[in-house]
Write a structure and sequence with these properties.
This protein is an alpha+beta fold. It contains five helices and 16 strands. The strands form three sheets. Strands 9, 10, 11, 12, 13, 14, 15 and 16 form an eight-stranded mixed sheet that branches. The radius of gyration is 18 Å and the shape is globular.
Length: 233
């Protein structure tokens, strides 16, 4: 192992840059002007260094194998201890959140389980308010988190379909309250998984994704794993 760039990116001895797929560690500036490091970003990088630096690793793929930056998108295992899956270890330490992609959805249930345990024990980032799970019934708070990746919990007040998209509304005033938007491409993935998001009306859910503020705060869902059903009624 040659270099650890941040809490979810490494450079192999071959020069191949690997983005550890399925998780998102706190971000470092990495040369970006004016970018404030996220809380515990250095802790995440140090933890990844301690785990992999100077050790042999095995790279496995679970979907799309590279991104537009030319980085490999893979799952990393220690070569001399194959039972140690690097993503699960870092997420389990509370130093990364589960961060799924529509074209890379392997092993997410295992990562969700590791994240849930770390969150319940308030390990790492889960002790910092920056990463707290937000409430869907506080749209004014969520609007202030526009541009941030967030976990949001709440009960779906109403579900509906319009213009080929499904809308999950968490309040009575859709232009102000929190909304989840699921587009046609994502709906095909829901269908392939045997899931109908319209039945989530009345359910208590946890949604993860990037918050924007268009007719109130919202998250665009691109694949089913972004929504966890906590209770059906």
């Amino acid at each position: 192992m040659q270099q650890v760039t941040d809490g979810d990116t490494i450079v192999l001895d071959s020069g191949l840059v690997v983005r550890l797929i399925g998780m998102q560690a706190p971000k470092l500036p990495l040369g970006r002007d004016g970018f404030e490091p996220w809380p515990m970003a250095e802790d995440a990088r140090f933890a990844l260094e301690a785990l992999v630096l100077g050790k042999g690793v095995h790279l496995a793929y679970g979907g799309e194998q590279s991104d537009r930056h030319g980085r490999a998108l893979g799952h990393l295992y220690l070569a001399d201890a194959p039972a140690i899956w690097v993503q699960e270890a870092i997420v389990g330490q509370g130093l990364a959140r589960v961060y799924p992609f529509p074209d890379n959805r392997a092993c997410l249930l295992e990562l969700m389980a590791a994240e849930g345990k770390a969150r319940a024990m308030k390990l790492g980032i889960w002790s910092d308010p920056f990463y707290t799970v937000r409430r869907a019934d506080q749209p004014e708070v969520l609007a202030g988190r526009s541009g941030h990746y967030e976990l949001v919990e709440g009960r779906v007040l109403k579900s509906g379909k319009a213009g080929g998209r499904v809308f999950l509304n968490f309040g009575r005033y859709w232009k102000e309250d929190f909304t989840v938007v699921i587009d046609a491409r994502a709906l095909r993935l829901f269908g392939d998984s045997g899931l109908d998001p319209l039945v989530l009306e009345g359910a208590l859910v946890r949604v993860r994704g990037w918050v924007d503020d268009r007719d109130g705060p919202r998250i665009e869902v691109t694949h089913p794993e972004q929504i966890e059903v906590l209770a059906t009624r």
